[in-house]
């Protein structure tokens, strides 16, 4: 696949029109983030674009910074872990920092951000050149920048790089989607690590600054009555949640056999999954037909109902083949007994120690549940206060953390598990495919022919709608 992508890369590096180069770079970043081809950063491209911006744009970066810290996020969401992580880190500052949003954001998410940050700014630009200019105008007033950007947000990287060529600007990169490609390696003074999976991929990157373990923070508050008994009730209830794609069978890995075994072993029990769609997630259909009302598949639940459901469940089952990150750890700290299958994408918290390699081993864990002291380890690694200490020490004292998650959770994953082979299973943005169809038809055709039937239908449907 690398040979397919290279012409697009060459277009970014060699096209004389800077705006066209920036547009191609944005598509390049989005494409590589979606399709794992074994390339996880491209600092050479970033440097070329920063230098071209310096030549093309008349921007002054010489002002003396008079503000402390600016967080930058590409888009803010009301759901998911990306925005939530940013909000938690922002809450760790003694004085709330400012926020810059470089693209569209959900109105509810925007209102929530305004309650957390001192000031919230948004970019309003019609092209990437103007976007770079506006981001630059905000960043030049700050001493330090914390990035929570999308993989394809090349405009933010270029804006930060322009300032760094003139004066010292400390950039801290929070790579939430650490399993895939992203821009940012050329400008990050500190590259925060969240998992052992991401830390292993970072070794394949050319990062200009230093890496520092951060960890995704979870609440340190534990319930007054946590589940300590290893006894299982006659009709235990099971609960899981996550984006639909986290449960989609992938290269032989499938959570369905575990669900079937649980529902067969306990004939009166129920298994509830929140975040999935019975209509479009066809891989659930055989199980739903077999178990009927005992398998509850819910697209969405209001927050109060979600919390009520988690309290009633006896066991929380982490999503698989793709894990839920620290959602698993949070449920364990909330008093739930946590179980799950060991994923090849792993190392986000010590809670992974409670996962097992086979269905039979998980069933045995249910029958003889022990938390193996994992609660205290979660607090030490992912607890809010522990992460806060690492985060602020790095920002204000230049102290990096060399903690290695693998000292607690021995590696059993596979960093090559997501690499694209013959089929492209992950949905590619319709906007990206539209760009390729108009400007890079050969690449468009090569990718489209390798898409799964589901993704072809998804792209075709979006093309018809518009």
Describe the structure.
- The protein is an alpha/beta fold.
- It has 3 domains: 43-217 and 383-407, Rossmann fold; 238-381, 3-Layer(aba) Sandwich (Rossmann fold), CATH 3.40.50; 422-466.
- Helices cover 41% and strands 11% of the residues.
- The chain is built from 18 helices and 12 strands.
- The chain has helices at 2-14, 18-34, 43-56, 81-90, 107-114, 128-139, 154-164, 196-202, 256-265, 285-291, 303-312, 327-333, 359-367, 374-382, 384-397, 430-439, 441-450, 453-465; strands at residues 67-73, 98-101, 120-122, 142-148, 170-174, 190-193, 210-213, 238-241, 271-274, 295-298, 315-317, 337-339.
- It has a 7-stranded parallel β-sheet with strand order 3-2-1-4-5-6-7, with helices on both faces. Strands 10-9-8-11-12 form a 5-stranded parallel β-sheet, sandwiched between helices.
- Strand 11 (315-317), helix 12 and strand 12 (337-339) form a beta-alpha-beta unit.
- The longest helix is centred in the first third of the chain and has 17 residues, at 18-34.
- The radius of gyration is 23 Å and the shape is globular.
- GO terms for molecular function: transferase activity.
- Keywords: Transferase.
- This is Group 1 glycosyl transferase.
